[in-house]
C-alpha cells in the first residue's frame, strides 16, 4: 500500500508529492529520523550562538535588502521579523485558490526542511499543522518580482503564523489567531530570521509550477487522443504516424506521441494513394507539435524539482561549516525560464486543437462531413448550427492563450533602491502559465467533444466501426455527452468536461 503522507526532511520531494498534498490526497509529516531533528536544531543553535558571539547577522540585526546597512539594536531584534511580515502585507489581485495555497505552504516547508535557513523545529511543526488541519492563509497573487523571493505572497504565511492574517479554516474566513484558537494552539512566536526564512524564497512560483507541470503532462496525452479522433473523423492519412517515418527523426517524445496516435488509429492497410496524400499540418505535424512539449517535460520536471528541493533563502545558515553564506538563492530564474517555456508550448496545443477544429467544421476541407459537424436530420438542418459557436469560442480562448505567451522573464524591473536591480518575474511567468493551461484545457475539451461527434458522423458515412481505441473513447464521452443533433446551450456541459479533465477521467496511454 502506498503511504498516505509525504515525509519532509530526509528525502527529496517530487512534483507529484506537492500535487498530492495540494489536492489533500496526502497529509504531511516531518521525518522522525534522529539526524533530521539534529540538523534543524543545529541551524537554530548556530544562529543563536552567532547572535551572542558576532552580534551582526544580516536580516537579524540589520534592515532588509538595501537597508542592510541599517543596524538594528538587540532590543529590537525580536520585532524585526514581525515588521517584515507586516510591511510586505500589500499584495493585490485575486487570492490563490486553496489547492495552490496548500502547494505554497508545502513548497516552503520543503525548502526550510533542508536545514540551511536557521529556523526552529517548532516552526516546521507549525507549518505541518497548518497543512494537515487545512489552515489556509489568503495569499494575494500579485506583487512578487520573483527575485527577492516571493516576499509579498509569502509574507501572508508569516503573518498567519503570528496570528495576524486572515485564513480560510473549516469553510470560514477568520483571523488566523481564531483558527489557531480552535486548534488549541497559540499564535506562533517568530524567532529572529524566521520571517525572512519563510519569505525569502521561490515557494509561490515553484508551487504554481508543480501544479502547472502535472496539467501540462496530462494535456500532451489528451491532445494526442483528440488528434487521433480528429484524424479518423477527417478521413486523414494514418501513414503520417508510421513507425519507420519516426525512426528517422529521433526525438523520443515526438516518437512516443506518434506511437500513441498510431496505436489509436490501428493497423493501416497499405494505402499508397489516398485521395489526399498529405494531410494539413495540424494533423500531419501533430507529433511534432505535441512532441516538442513532451520532449521538454523531463527537463522541466528536473528544473522544477531542483528548485523545490533547494534552500532558496538568504543568507544560508550552514551549521556544518559554521558559516553564514550571503548570496541570491531567492532568485527564481529557473522557474521563470521553465514557466515561460511551458506556457508557449501549452499555448501551441491550444492552437493545434483550434486548427483541427477549423478543419472539422469546414465542409471545404472536412472530407464529406456536415458543416459544423451538425448532427441535424435533413429537414432540421437549416435551423441547427452544430459546433459553430464552440469553434468561435475556441478561437477566442486560443487567442487569449497565445497573447499570454510573451515571456515574463524579460520584463525585469530595477526595484528597491536598485538593490533588486535584476529580478526574475518567475511568479508572473508561472501565473501566466496557469492561465494558459486553463484556456488550453477549454480548447482541448471542446475539440474532444467535436472530434467524437465527427468520428460518429464519419463512421455513419463510411458505414463502418471506427478503430477500437477511438470508438472506446467516443463511447465513454458519449455516456455524458449526447450526440449534438438539435442546438442546445453547451456551457454547463463544457464546464462538466473541464472538471473531468481536472479529475483526469481517462488514464490515456499506458506507455509513458
Ligand atoms: N531578498 C533580500 C531581503 C529583502 C527582504 C525584504 C525586502 O523588502 C527587501 C529585501 C535579501 O536576501 O537580500
From TrEMBL:
- Look up the domain of life of the source: Bacteria
CDD domains attached here? Answer: PAL-HAL
| Pfam families, sorted | Lyase_aromatic (PF00221)
Quote the InterPro entries the UniProt record gives.
Aromatic_Lyase, Fumarase/histidase_N, L-Aspartase-like, Phe/His_NH3-lyase_AS
Q: What's the name of the protein?
A: Histidine ammonia-lyase
Native species: Idiomarina piscisalsi
Amino acid at each position: 500500500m502506498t503511504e498516505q503522507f509525504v515525509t519532509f526532511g530526509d528525502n527529496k520531494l517530487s512534483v507529484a508529492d506537492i500535487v498530492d498534498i495540494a489536492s489533500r490526497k496526502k497529509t504531511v509529516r516531518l521525518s522522525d529520523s534522529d539526524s533530521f531533528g539534529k540538523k534543524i536544531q543545529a541551524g537554530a543553535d548556530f544562529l543563536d550562538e552567532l547572535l551572542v558571539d558576532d552580534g551582526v547577522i544580516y536580516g537579524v540585526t540589520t534592515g532588509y535588502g538595501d537597508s542592510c546597512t541599517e543596524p538594528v539594536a538587540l532590543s529590537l531584534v525580536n520585532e524585526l521579523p514581525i515588521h517584515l511580515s507586516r510591511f510586505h502585507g500589500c499584495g493585490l489581485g485575486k487570492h490563490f485558490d486553496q489547492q495552490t495555497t496548500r502547494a505554497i505552504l508545502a513548497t516552503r516547508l520543503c525548502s526550510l526542511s533542508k536545514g540551511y535557513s536557521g529556523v526552529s523545529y517548532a516552526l516546521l511543526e507549525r507549518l505541518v499543522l497548518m497543512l494537515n488541519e487545512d489552515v489556509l492563509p489568503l495569499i494575494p497573487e500579485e506583487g512578487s518580482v520573483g527575485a527577492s523571493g516571493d516576499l509579498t505572497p509569502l509574507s501572508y504565511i508569516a503573518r498567519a503564523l503570528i496570528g495576524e492574517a486572515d485564513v480560510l479554516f473549516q469553510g470560514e474566513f477568520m483571523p488566523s489567531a481564531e483558527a489557531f484558537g480552535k486548534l488549541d494552539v497559540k499564535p506562533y512566536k517568530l524567532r529572529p530570521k524566521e520571517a525572512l526564512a519563510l519569505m525569502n524564497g521561490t515557494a509561490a512560483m515553484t508551487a504554481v509550477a508543480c501544479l502547472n507541470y502535472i496539467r501540462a503532462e496530462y494535456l500532451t496525452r489528451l491532445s494526442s487522443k483528440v488528434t487521433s479522433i480528429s484524424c479518423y473523423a477527417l478521413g486523414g492519412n494514418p501513414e503520417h504516424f508510421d513507425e519507420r517515418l519516426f525512426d528517422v527523426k529521433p526525438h523520443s517524445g515526438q516518437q512516443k506521441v506518434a506511437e500513441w496516435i498510431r496505436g489509436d488509429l490501428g493497423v493501416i492497410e497499405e494505402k499508397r494513394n489516398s485521395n489526399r496524400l498529405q494531410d494539413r499540418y495540424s494533423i500531419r505535424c501533430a507529433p511534432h507539435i505535441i512532441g516538442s512539449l513532451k520532449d521538454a517535460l523531463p527537463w522541466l520536471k528536473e528544473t522544477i524539482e531542483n528548485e523545490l528541493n533547494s534552500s532558496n533563502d538568504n543568507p544560508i545558515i550552514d551549521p556544518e561549516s559554521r558559516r553564514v553564506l550571503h548570496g541570491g538563492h531567492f532568485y527564481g530564474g529557473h522557474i521563470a525560464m521553465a514557466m515561460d517555456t511551458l506556457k508557449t508550448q501549452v499555448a501551441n496545443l491550444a492552437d493545434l486543437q483550434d486548427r483541427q477544429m477549423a478543419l472539422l467544421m469546414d465542409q471545404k476541407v472536412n472530407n464529406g462531413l456536415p458543416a459544423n459537424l451538425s448532427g441535424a436530420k435533413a429537414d432540421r438542418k437549416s435551423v441547427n448550427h452544430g459546433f459553430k459557436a464552440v469553434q468561435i469560442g475556441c478561437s477566442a480562448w486560443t487567442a487569449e492563450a497565445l497573447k499570454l505567451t510573451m515571456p515574463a522573464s524579460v520584463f525585469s524591473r530595477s526595484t528597491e533602491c536598485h538593490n533588486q536591480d535584476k529580478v526574475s518575474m518567475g511568479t508572473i511567468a508561472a501565473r501566466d502559465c496557469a492561465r494558459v493551461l486553463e484556456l488550453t484545457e477549454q480548447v482541448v475539451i471542446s475539440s474532444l467533444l467535436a472530434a467524437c461527434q465527427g468520428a460518429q458522423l464519419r463512421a455513419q458515412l463510411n458505414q463502418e466501426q471506427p478503430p477500437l481505441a477511438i470508438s472506446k473513447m467516443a463511447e465513454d464521452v458519449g455516456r455524458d455527452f449526447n450526440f449534438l443533433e438539435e442546438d442546445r446551450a453547451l456551457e454547463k456541459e463544457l464546464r462538466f468536461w473541464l472538471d473531468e479533465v481536472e479529475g483526469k477521467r481517462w488514464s490515456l496511454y499506458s506507455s509513458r
